[in-house]
Each structure stands twice: as structure tokens, then as C-alpha cells.
Amino acid sequence: MESLWVFGDQLNRDIGALADADPERDRILLVESRAKLGDRRHRQRIHLVVTAMRRFGDELADAGFSVDLRVADDLRSGLEAHRREHEPS
Hints:
The protein has three helices and three strands, in the order E-E-H-H-E-H. The chain has helices spanning about 35, 45-60, 75-85; strands spanning about 1-5, 25-35, 65-70. The longest helix has 20 residues, at about 45-60. The protein is globular. The N and C termini lie close together (about 5 Å). About 15% of the residues are buried.
């Protein structure tokens, strides 16, 4: 299975890699970064994005996708943990 990493500003099934995504072939990776959540200058905006990301993950799961929503210290560690667990192609 392939993995598609979707960032908080890409929560739309009609753009980017998601436009051609197939639930039979693609797993979706969403990473909540604790480092980003710690940014006090944009705290409300960040929480809005996190909430939207969680809801989008639920929508994708309802559409039949396997969704890996990770909470990690930073984006890189979330990606690395996903790779170790799922070994995407």
C-alpha cells in the first residue's frame, strides 16, 4: 500500500495527490505536530487547522481510506514512525 502525506493546508480531495487517491491502494498520513501546537503567536489558527485535519481524517475514513493520524513531537518524527509501522512502497 502507498502512503499519501496530507498537510493541514491540503485538506481537499480534489487537489494534489488526493485527486487520484484510491482507498484500495492508498493510506493517508496526517501528522499533528506538538512543535507547531506550541507556537503561541498563532494558537487559535493552529487549533483550527488541527480540528479541520481530524474531521477530514474522519471523512476520508468514512470514504473507505485507511487513515493514520499521528500525534508526534514534530512532522519528521511522525513521518518516521509511520514509515516504521507501515513500510509504504
